[in-house]
Every structure is written in C-alpha cells, then in structure tokens.
Amino acid sequence: MKIRTGRGLFALLAMLTVVLVVAAVSPALAQDKSLIKEIQQRGELRVGYALADPHAIKDSATGQWKGIAVEVMEEWAKELNVKHVAVDTSWDAMIAGLQAGKYDVAAAINRRPARALVVTFSMPYMSDIGTFAMNRDKVKAKSWAELDKKGTKIAVVMGTAEDKALTRIVKAAELVRLPDQNEARMAVQSGRAAAFFDDISGNAKLAKENKAYRLIIPDPAIEVEGIAYAIRKGYPNDDLQALDIMVENFVNTGKLRAAQEKYGLPNPQDFVK
C-alpha cells in the first residue's frame, strides 16, 4: 500500500514538473516569434499593394508602386535597414495573401470589425469616407437616396470596404463590381455606371483632374473607416507597437501632409456642387 502511494506521489510530482517546465518555456517561445526579426533576417519588408489612388498607385511606365501608403512603408524599411519589396495583389485577395505569407504587411487597408477577427491592424494614418463620383452633366442626383433607384448602376471595386458598405444598405440600385479603381472609373466615364462609390481621397482627386465629375458626400455617412496596415495574427505586441510608432511618426512630423500635397489631394467640398 505504501509502495503504491509512493509511486503515485512520484508520478504526480513528475507531472507537475513537466507542467512547470512547459509553462516556463512557452512564454519564451512566444517571445521568439517576431515579425520584425523575420523581416530583418530575410533582409526584405514585403508589402502587399492593390490600386487605391492616392494611397497606392502603380506607375504604368516604370511598374513601380508609389503613393501615400507606399511612402510610409519605404520609411519603415529604412528604419529596419532592409529592402522595401512591393508585392502586387488585388483587394479581393488582399487578406488571403497576407494570411498565406505572400507579404508581411497589407497596405492601405480599411479597419473593419470582420477583418479585425482575422488580421491585426496598425493605427490608422488617414480616414476613409465613402463618396460617389459621377458625371455632372449626366447624373443630377444629389444624395444616395436619389441614386438608390431601380435601373441605376453603381460601380464599386469588388472586395473593398466600399463594396461591403453599399451591399449592406442598397435597396434598388444595381452594384457593378469591378476588379480595380481604373475599371470602375472607366465604367462611369463610358456610361456603364451612373456613379463610382470610393474613398473620398481618390474621388476628390478624380474630380480635381476631370472637371466633368462632381461628388456626393453622403450625410449621414455610409462608410467612415480608418485606413491602416495589417499584419498576420500571432505576433507579439512589440511588433505592432513598432509599426504604430512608424505610422504615428509619419503623421506627426509633417510627412503625411507633404505626401498628400505631392499626390494632389484637394478639398473634397470643392467638388460637391
């Protein structure tokens, strides 16, 4: 009887020792996982970009990406002492590509509750307000209620926050889902769509460059979301804090304002009449 008790006690002590060792080792293993370490060991900061003027624009002549979101990541690559590598993607594949490890960071992506369940967001560097751009001579509507009519086609880029926002509230209009910003703009220009629902920055820039366009800024707003960066889940808070501070520094040192001016961001209110 004593022998059994002794053996049982020994087994219990052995199990407790294993548990304590695992508990002690697990935090250390968690600390070893670091996105920044992975980036620095590879020597590259891989960033996924999809067309979103003025945040991410691909130069047709050089094939190089440029824009506000690109400049933030170029700055971060310098801080990390690595090469900035742009990876082409599309908005409907942006999250999947990040989760698959095709890039380390997804750029210029809207912070949405559903997305926050599967990726980790940085702090936003700007806000996205959904607006409609239309040909002032062809479309006389002044509000979303006037656009949301049977027979009216509204262009959106598939898989974007704008697509999700309109899908939730549309009653009668038809949504024309297109692969990128250029296709959606061309749909309005050709008359295939009455309006294009997009980020206020992109639509304001479109209206500035083409006087035929005017904007509707919905009131109440249909969509207001922060524009930020996303990384895969599971990395320590230190990695996210480093990214947040990079974004904060870009905003607070005047680099954001300089980039907005560089890429021609106007006052959207100038184009609502």
Task: Describe it.
This protein is of the alpha/beta class and 273 residues long. The protein folds into three domains: 1-32; 35-126 and 226-267, Periplasmic binding protein-like II (D-Maltodextrin-Binding Protein, domain 2), CATH 3.40.190.10; 128-216, 3-Layer(aba) Sandwich (D-Maltodextrin-Binding Protein, domain 2). Helices cover 44% and strands 23% of the residues. The chain is built from eleven helices and twelve strands. The strands form two sheets. Strands 1, 4, 5, 6, 7, 8, 9, 10, 11 and 12 form a ten-stranded mixed beta sheet that branches. A two-stranded antiparallel ribbon has the order 2-3. Strand 2 (57-58) and strand 3 form a beta hairpin. The longest helix has 31 residues, at 2-32. The radius of gyration is 24 Å and the shape is globular. The N and C termini lie far apart (94 Å). Residues 1-5 and 9-30 have low confidence and may be disordered.
Give a topology summary.
Blueprint: H1 2-32, H2 35-42, E1 44-49, E2 57-58, E3 65-66, H3 68-80, E4 83-88, H4 94-99, E5 105-110, H5 113-116, E6 119-121, E7 126-135, H6 144-147, E8 153-157, H7 161-169, E9 174-178, H8 181-190, E10 195-199, H9 200-209, E11 213-216, E12 224-232, H10 237-252, H11 255-262
Parallel strand pairs: 1-4, 1-5, 8-9, 8-10
Antiparallel strand pairs: 2-3, 5-12, 6-12, 7-10, 7-11, 7-12
